[in-house]
């Protein structure tokens, strides 16, 4: 049993156009993913592809105009709204993408201490601050007194002291200097080695590959491939989905080959495969139905042509 299972998740937002016409934005569609204890799953993909929405759906913190369908289970039991509230910040911790998640009216040391559930709160907070190179006097500061990097380290600290079994880190590293970034990534690896499951959402594929066991590739609101980190090597021959291959080849060290076209807007998704309009391998069949996720070479892929 996976510690966290997301089955057939869809999330949409109702939006009103200028003429008060209502349109539906499908920001996540039929998404399946599992988190295993002891593993780090890195989630990569373009901006606006729905990575943060997935994190917020798991934690039950989507805005009220969102409609959600599908089932999320934690330790084999469905995560209902009540259960999401009960486990949030305790068994399932979030390192949010935005530093606005800090409480502006509370000193940051106290914020971190309220997340400690076992052992001495002050000691745990001071140890994590030291590890992330935050000076001790920072504990007395309010969020507005912090630099962007310090605020991010405070958010990381809050999740790290929580003792959660599942950690979801949404872009935890931008703005951190390389030394602190390495500490943060090493910390995630240690968590996983202790039996915790980590979902690391990131734009930094290189860092993700250094610590992740598996990589999930997001495109236009769904996961198109789940691969082992080792598959991301060379020219990407072992990578299954044409979008994942393109993403890999677009990296500076892999020839910087740009991907033509752009990701479809959530208000106007194509009927069939979401990547078909940009895909060199697309055939008329690809335009008919969205392909199902299928097993391929010890990974998962959502493409009828992948081999
Ligand atoms: N409250 C909202 N109402 C309507 N649409 C929203 C809302 N929040 C997010 N979206 C839309 O959902 C889509 C997915 O957004 P999300 O923030 O999950 O992307 P992301 O993959 O995390 O991007 P980034 O890498 O830039 O953080 C985007 O098209 C975004 O515009
Ligand atoms: Ni995001």
Automatic annotation (TrEMBL):
GO terms for molecular function: ABC-type nickel transporter activity; ATP binding; ATP hydrolysis activity. Keywords: ATP-binding, Cell membrane, Ion transport, Membrane, Nickel, Nickel transport, Nucleotide-binding, Translocase, Transport. GO terms for biological process: peptide transport. Its main location: membrane. SMART domains: AAA. It catalyses: Ni(2+)(out) + ATP + H2O = Ni(2+)(in) + ADP + phosphate + H(+). Residues 4-245 form the ABC transporter domain. This is Nickel import system ATP-binding protein NikD. The lineage of its organism: Bacteria, Bacillati, Bacillota, Bacilli, Bacillales.
